[in-house]
Amino acid sequence: MFLVAGIPTKNEEWIIGKTLSVLIKFCDKVVILDDNSIDKTEEICRSFENVKFIKRKLTNNIIDTGMSALGKKELLNHISKYNPKYILMLDADEIPTPSFIEFFKNIDTTVSAWKIRMINLYSDDKHYRVDSFKTLSGININWNPFSNNAWMKTVLFKFENSYNYTYNFNNIIGGVSKYHPAPENLKGTIVETDEFYIIHYGKLNKTYTSGEKDKLYAEIETKVGRGTYKERLQHHYLCRTGSGPNGPEYEKCPREWFWT
């Protein structure tokens, strides 16, 4: 196969149908690694052709998830069975812009991996956040996807079946490798590109806006010794709700970022 996408899921019925309806336009296969969802995630995924749904073994271990380094390696192992030329690793709430198709038709075969700008939708699906600020705990937050130190992810890479890809299993949550979400030991030329972007819908999800994800992240980080639960909860709250001197700042999304 030429291009296979991989996505970890857990209770993603709110967005996974939208994501898959885009990915099946250009992917030969989409592999879903599910952390035992209890909503309609499985039903929605199985309704699409060329989507392989795999349910992870239930561990009841809050640290061992599909989003962790362990989960990313497990997902990669499943994808590798299809021996694709390229792998696209996304979260359920991440959708490439339509310009991806033209980019991929003319892909530079001398490049091994691509770092892509992440566009964080905020407030609604027509605007994205651009303000930067420092939280009360001294953490610099930058929402501007087009700044010099913008959030970028290495979501696309060339795959070699004979190569032993690895992850840093000490990284439990967040960036699981220096090429997150791609493996730690990518080789060859790795470049940034603005030929397409990734639209991140996650900041619109009620589990994020309500603060429920703050609690989950704080619990995981406490278990791996990153601080007390209270400290980590405050950190995520400030990152989510803090703003610069002008308050939250937004820009209108260009229409060409979205699929019709």
Molecular structure report:
It is a single chain. The protein is built from seven helices and twelve strands. It has 260 residues and is of the alpha/beta class. The model has no long low-confidence stretch (mean pLDDT 92). The chain has one domain (3-257): Spore Coat Polysaccharide Biosynthesis Protein SpsA, Chain A. The relative contact order is 0.17. Helix 2 (41-46) links the parallel strand 2 (29-34) and strand 3 (51-55). Strands 1, 2, 3, 4, 5, 6, 7, 10, 11 and 12 form a ten-stranded mixed β-sheet that branches.
In short:
This protein is an alpha/beta fold and 260 residues long. It is 24% helix and 26% strand.
Low-confidence stretches: none
Q: Return the string of H and E elements.
A: EHEHEHEEHEEEEEEHHHE
Major sheet attributes: 10 strands, mixed
Radius of gyration from the alpha-carbon trace, in angstroms = 18 Å
Output the number of helix runs: 7
Mean pLDDT equals 92
Helicity level? 10-25%
Computed structural class = alpha/beta
Give the number of DSSP strands. 12
The separation of the N and C termini measures 26 Å
CATH top level assignment: Alpha Beta
| Approximate strand percentage | 25-35%
What characteristic shape results from the CA principal axes?
Answer: globular
What CATH calls the topology is: Spore Coat Polysaccharide Biosynthesis Protein SpsA, Chain A
Count of discrete domains: 1
What CATH architecture would you give?
Alpha-Beta Complex
